Amino acid sequence: MNHHTQVGIIGAGPSGLLLAQLLHTQGINSVVLENRPRQRVESRQRAGLLEQNTVDRLRQAGATDRLDREGLVHDGVILSYNGHRHRIDLAHLTGGSRVTIYAQTEVVKDLIQLRLHEDEQSILFEAEATAIDGLDGYAPAIHYTHQGENHTLICDFVAGCDGFHGIARQAIPAHLTTTYDKVYPYCWLGILAKVPPSTDELIYAYHDRGFALHSMRSPEISRLYVQCDVTDTLDDWPDERIWAELQLRLGTAGWTLAEGPILEKTITPMRSFVSEPMQFGRLFLAGDSAHIVPPTGAKGLNMAVADTGYLFDALMRWYQAGSSLELDAYTAGCMRRVWRVQEFSNFMTDMLHRDSTKSSFDAHLQASRFNQLVNSEAASTVIAENYVGLAASWATGVTGSEHGQSTTFHA
Ligand code: FAS
Ligand code: PHB
After folding, report:
1. Can you tell me the distance from the alpha carbon of 49 to that of 390, in angstroms, rounded to the nearest whole number?
2. Is 57 in the pocket of ligand 2 (CB under 6 A)?
3. Going from the N-terminus, what domains does the chain have, and what CATH number goes with each?
4. Low-confidence ranges of the chain (pLDDT < 70)
5. Is 299 a catalytic site residue?
C-alpha cells in the first residue's frame, strides 16, 4: 500500500514521538514507523534525568500533565571521591536552573498516549522501515513492512529518529559522511530496585574500585549503576555482589545504602559517537541516529530532544514561512551543542571512572579535578551549567546574533 503524510518519522523513541506531537500542535501531519511492539518501547529502561530545556519542549507539546505531578525536581547533585562528598548547588550556581527526575519510559508512554488518542494511525508499531529513497527530490519515500505486507510512505520530509542501530544514517551517502568514535574500556551495570532512595539527590561516585551512581525513579524505586568490565555478563554480578560494590563505592561515614529486591538488571556499553552531516536532501537525523554519549552526563535523551526542537522549529519555518534557511543550517545548528555535550560527557566519564588502561599519572589528574571542584566555585559552576542544560543560544549555533556575542571554533 502507498500512502502519504507531510513528515515521515522513523522511530518511536523520545525524538520521533516528540517531533510527531510538536508537529501535531501546529496542524502538520506525520506518521511514526516503529519496528518494535508498543510494550517493548514503553518498558525499555534508559534515561532518567530531564534538563529544563527538555521539560520546556515537552510542555510545548502538551505532554507534561503527569510529569508535573510525578517528576522529582532537584536543586543539586552530589559528586563523591572515595567517600568524600561534594554537593554542587545547581540552582544557586546557574541562577535557578534545576533538573527533573522522570524516566524516559514515562516520557515515551505519555507521548504515545497523546498521539494515539488524537490519531490511532499516527504510530504504526511492528512496522520496520527497510529503505528510504527520493531524498534528493520533493517527495521522498520510506519503504516498510507491516503485518507481513510491504508498504510505502511518501512524504515531504523524512525524520531519521531510529537510534544508533537504525537505517536512516545509512541513507546518507558514505562519501559525504564523517564519523567520530570513542569506545570506553568499561560498561555500566544498571539495576532497578524496589527500595526507597537513600538520598534525595543523585550521587555520582568515583572510587578506586570503580564508578557508581545512585539515582531514582520515584519515592519507592531506586535506580543504581556500577562500573563493570566490558567482558562482564549479568552472570558475573549476582545481587549480593552488586549491593556490596554499591555500598563500598557510594559509602561515606554515617551513611548506609538501603537495599531491596532487584527488579531489573542491564549492562550498557560506554561509547561516544558523532556522525556528520545530520541531513541529506529531505532527510534529517535527530537523536541517537546521529550521535551517542556515555550516560555519565545524563545527556543522551536531552540531546535527542534538543535536536528535535531545532528540527521542529526549522520545519515550521518551512511550512509557515516558506523559508528553508533553518533546514539548510540544521547540521551546523545542532553540531555546536552536540560537541559541547560530547565534551562534557567525556569529561564526567573520564573523571568518575577507574580506568585500568591508564597510568597512575592519570589517576592523579582525576584527584586534582575533584580538588579543584571542591575548592573552586568557578569549577563547580562549569559542571552545573553543563549539567542543567545549555542556554538556548547553544541550540542554534548562533555566533554574534540576537543571543549576544558568542564564538564558535571548529577543529
Ligand atoms: P531511541 O533509540 O530511543 O529510539 C529509536 C527507535 O527507533 C527505537 O524505538 C527503535 O526500535 C526504532 N527503530 C530502529 N530502527 C528502526 C527501523 N528500521 N524501523 C522502524 N523503527 C526503528 N541517556 C541518558 O541520558 N541517561 C541514561 O541513563 C541512559 N541510559 C541508556 C541505556 C541504554 C541501554 C541505551 C541504549 C541508551 C541509554 N541512554 C541514556 C541514551 C538514550 O536515552 C538515548 O539517548 C535516547 O533513547 C535517544 O532517543 P532517540 O534518539 O529517540 O532514539
Ligand atoms: C538515571 O536515573 O537513569 C540516570 C541519571 C543520571 C545519569 C544517568 C542515568 O547520568
Report:
1. 15
2. no
3. 2-74+101-180+272-355 (3.50.50.60)
4. 391-408
5. yes
